[in-house]
Amino acid sequence: MKLLVSKWSGFYSVPDPYIRDRFVSQTHELLETSFDLRQKLSSKFLKSVERSQLARIVRAMKDSHLIEDEVLNVIDGGVFMGVFSIATNGIAQMLSLSAMIEAYEMSAMLKESILANFSLHQCPVCLEMCGIGEHDSESANLYFRDDGLIGASAIPSANVSSTTFAESSMKSLSSILKKGGIRTSNLIKLDLEGHEPNAFKSLLSTPELLRNIFIIEYSAWQGKRDFSSSQKSWAEFLCDNFYVFNLQNWISSKPSIQVSHADGLLDDLETGSKVWNTDILLIPRQMEAMLDSYVSLNCPEIP
Fold first, then answer.
1. What is the pLDDT of residue 158?
2. For the chain, which has fewer Cβ within 10 Å, the N-terminal or C-terminal residue?
3. Model-wide pTM > 0.70
4. Could you tell me the pLDDT band of residue 283, with boundaries at 50, 70 and 90?
5. Whether the predicted pLDDT of 190 surpasses 70
6. Chain center to CA of 119
């Protein structure tokens, strides 16, 4: 399978019919990449993220002393094209930090393009081809969307086909965070196509593991579902344990909106518009200094 790279973004992807999105809207085959071209593509991309919500979050983590020894520990769950890892690594460098990134992707179809992107943007990442969920498993089903898009899920839904699937391994989020001891103050991104609540369920037996900074994809339909044995909904669990901000998208430069109660995660996500899928930032309620730092940076004028 030939990889394509977008003139617009400088990111490799696999060709149609497997994916149709802006990263391959205008493509050409990139057979050789010189050092100058890599620098140009990386510079162009990093310029687009230096005012992003992600940049503010990392800066707030640094200002509130959550980053030890100048090393930002990152877990990228649901790598897709590798954009989040590459952006985080670039932002860390801009803040004179180094980034230790663990990346997890369940769809083996994406491996070649992910590695090509990490190489193109000179992003050192430890990539593991497995999903993130509630339990460790050697064999889990990955369901592909009926429309041919590469976005796939570990759970069947209206957008995926129960007959089109592949097998992959799965790791629990708790086992990832317990490697080498209880790990906190990580930056964790979870874009698991609806599987995010299941990943969080693995943390319930070890509450210390909730003391990380999370960026997760969220849908209002998820929030209404029962999450724990106490019959709390997913939305109630999030608002009870975290300060919640609707980012809309982590790469956005617009100010986020704080979601003050669970009802705000069930209707319009307190954005004033009908947003179905959105990225939300979760700051543990014990991390007041992080909250204060982030709020002070949460405006478009901050560079």
1. 47
2. C
3. yes
4. very high
5. yes
6. 20
The answer to whether the bond into 17 is cis (omega within 30° of 0) is yes
Q: What is the Cα gyration radius of the chain?
A: 19
Tell me the range of 168-172, 196-200, 266-270 where mean pLDDT is highest.
Answer: 196-200
Neighbours of 184 (CB within 10 A): 16
CATH number of 41-297, picked from 3.30.420.40, 3.30.590.10, 3.90.105.10, 3.40.50.150: 3.40.50.150
Q: How many CA atoms lie within 13 A of 1 on its CB side?
A: 15
Average pLDDT of the residues of the chain = 79
Domain ranges of the chain: 41-297
Express each pLDDT in 26-71 by its tens digit.
343 443 456 666 667 677 778 888 889 999 999 999 999 999 999 9
Q: Look up residue 250 and give its amino acid.
A: W
CB of 79 closer than 8 Å to CB of 11: no
Give Cβ neighbours of residue 118 (< 8 Å, ≥ 6 apart). Answer: 82, 85, 86, 124, 125, 127
Contact residues for 253 (Cβ-Cβ < 8 A; gap 6+): 51, 52, 53, 300
Residue 50 to residue 216: CA distance in whole angstroms? 20
Task: Please say if the pLDDT value at position 155 is more than 80.
Answer: no
